[in-house]
Design brief:
The protein is an alpha+beta fold. It has helices at residues 18-32, 46-49, 54-66, 80-85, 125-128, 136-139, 172-181, 250-253, 303-319, 377-396, 429-441, 461-466, 504-513, 528-542, 547-553, and strands at 5-11, 37-40, 75-77, 91-94, 97-99, 103-108, 111-116, 143-146, 185-188, 195-196, 200-201, 207-212, 225-231, 244-245, 272-273, 284-286, 289-291, 340-343, 347-351, 361-365, 399-407, 418-424, 448-453, 475-479, 486-493. The strands form 5 sheets. An 8-stranded antiparallel sheet has the order 18-19-20-22-21-24-25-23, sandwiched between helices.
Length: 554
């Protein structure tokens, strides 16, 4: 790795089990590291440890202070209880374990790390007074670490982009600090919620990515650790193609009265900004109905197809959500055209954004529905034809293909899509089944293995497997490469109360490929220019198998 790149782990609130926690960190460091630092948003939650006095906490920390228990990588922590114990002053607790203080900015491995525990009110001087930082505002902070969530962080966020559960409390002072510092990344951990917000644009033009992390070893098995690589130079390059929202704290900062309030504020409709000269999907809006424009023809769609897609999406939006907030809907002007490979009558093929491989694809119906079981026969047959075409395309490269569809119970109705992941032919069905079964058992998922003659497999395979459940389907459905003329699929049926981590399937797929991945596709996103080149390359290789082109010639 480039010497100018720093590998960072960031963790949510840690309340107990310090020995077990650092053993887990040691395992991650050996498998995916070495990491240069670990940042913790809160050590010892006051709600949990309110009755613990400082003597008991110091006793819990003593094995690490004395070196009898190891901290595997340089670790930096904040927290309100730590502020009381160490009088808000930076303290080296033990080897590789440092309490940063209640607020300030510190240069660590060439990165500017700012921190704010929230035990005091915001003031510019809290950050400007850091002796080793001569000009924080000019250099721009790389990572902002806070215990509390900022008030207003959900402004301009809608639909499925919201957290799965409401925020109980947020901090006006953290909002002011975030606005003042304009960090590249902002992490908070007190709410015990994993939430990665759409990046937002600061008034100074820079972009901030906010991530809330759950507590360590939380019962919901939400993500509590985040890995990232950050460059210590040219910190704000190549951000022109990033889709952002406007600055979320504008309305919050208009209030001159400092406060700390519950975060049940009314969240405003999303209004995304276009940064840079991106080629976007066109269209005008009259009332609630997206109207077609000539730019749809760039997808190879007829006006009739566009009108039908718009009609379906508008009807759907009356049920639950605005289709213009969905990345996969053709009526969304923010759809990323450069990733599209092929367009059929009722569905299209695109490269996966943040994919696990260069030829990792998505099959997506034009109509916004949550499950392929709701699609009409014509759409199902076309998706089946795409699967067959992709299989032939990958086979020519000596690869098999894994097709994966999920329909999980979520607060908002997702736009269904099918993952198409190419895998080496050396990975046989027994390996694939073992990976999904072993990872599934960790969270209570037990797959049903379905086998049958490959020749009998058709576009209704999932319907047949679900049986009576197809009227209300929640499921994970995986189609493996056929072996010896036999089709093999995995099925897990869920109920409405099931809680499956969204990153589960990606974790399994990355394990199959032997790819180091944190479970978040956004961490693997590359520049738009590189994406466009990859899409063009795959489109050329897929051309001989693209049945939609053959139809067009007729």
């Amino acid at each position: 790795m480039n010497s100018d790149t720093v590998k960072v782990l960031v963790c949510g609130s840690i309340e107990n089990n310090l020995v077990q926690f650092f053993q887990r960190i040691n395992g991650i460091n050996k498998k995916s590291g070495p990491f240069d630092m670990l940042l913790i948003t809160q050590m010892f939650d006051p709600k949990v440890d309110l009755e613990k006095n400082s003597e008991e906490i110091l006793k819990e920390l003593s094995p690490f202070a004395e070196g009898t228990e190891q901290v595997p990588i340089p670790t930096f922590v904040i927290g309100e209880l730590m502020d009381k114990i160490y009088d808000s002053k930076e303290t080296e607790i033990g080897p590789n374990l440092t309490y940063l203080g209640s607020s300030g900015v510190k240069s660590i491995n060439g990165l500017l790390v700012s921190f704010f525990s929230g035990s005091e009110s915001f003031s510019n001087k809290l950050f400007d007074s850091s002796p080793e930082i001569s000009s924080t505002r000019k250099n721009l902070v790389d990572i902002f670490l806070t215990t509390d969530w900022p008030e207003g962080i959900l402004n301009l966020v809608t639909g499925s982009a919201k957290p799965l559960k409401p925020i109980t409390k947020s901090s006006y002072d953290v909002s002011r600090a975030a606005a003042y510092l304009s960090p590249r990344y902002h992490f908070a951990g007190k709410e015990n919620i994993h939430f990665e917000r759409v990046p937002y644009k600061n008034p100074n033009g820079s972009i901030t990515r906010f991530c809330g992390l759950a507590s360590v070893f939380n019962e919901e098995k939400q993500k509590y650790i985040f890995a990232l690589n950050l460059s210590t130079y040219d910190k704000r390059t190549d951000e022109s193609s990033i889709t952002t929202t406007e600055f979320p704290y504008a309305s919050v900062l208009q209030s001159s009265k400092s406060k700390e309030a519950p975060s049940n504020e009314e969240e405003k409709p999303a209004k995304k900004q276009k940064t840079g000269k991106e080629e976007r999907f066109g269209g005008t809006t009259i009332g609630d109905t997206p109207q077609p424009s000539s730019s749809y023809n760039r997808w190879g769609l007829s006006n009739d197809q566009v009108k039908e897609a718009s009609k379906q999406n508008v009807e759907y939006s009356k049920l639950k959500r605005d289709p213009t907030s969905c990345w996969f809907c053709l009526s969304n002007s923010e759809a990323e055209l450069h990733l599209v490979v092929s367009v059929g009558s009722a569905s299209y093929l695109a490269l996966a954004k943040g994919g696990l491989a260069e030829d990792h694809c998505l099959l997506i119906p034009i109509q916004h529905l949550t499950s392929s079981t709701y699609l009409k026969d014509a759409a199902l047959i076309e998706l089946f034809n795409y699967k067959q075409a992709l299989t032939k395309c990958y086979n020519k490269r000596d690869k098999g293909v894994l097709f994966l569809e999920r329909n999980l119970p979520t607060k908002n109705l997702q736009h269904m899509h099918i993952q198409a992941l190419p895998i080496p032919t050396s990975i046989d069905s027994s390996i694939i089944i073992d990976v999904f079964q072993s990872e599934g058992k960790k969270i209570g998922i037990y797959f049903q293995v379905i086998k049958g003659p490959e020749a009998t497999k058709d576009h209704l395979a999932l319907h047949k497997a679900l049986g009576n459940s197809s009227s209300n389907p929640y499921y994970l459905w995986i189609e493996l490469p056929p072996e010896n003329g036999e089709s093999i699929s995995l099925l897990f049926k869920l109920n409405q109360n099931s809680n499956i981590p969204l990153q589960f399937t990606r974790t399994c797929m990355s394990a199959l490929l032997g790819v180091s991945d944190d479970g978040n596709w956004q961490s693997s996103v590359i520049s738009k220019d590189k994406e466009a080149l990859m899409a063009a390359k795959f489109k050329a290789s897929f051309k001989e198998f693209d049945f939609t082109l053959k139809k067009a010639k007729k």
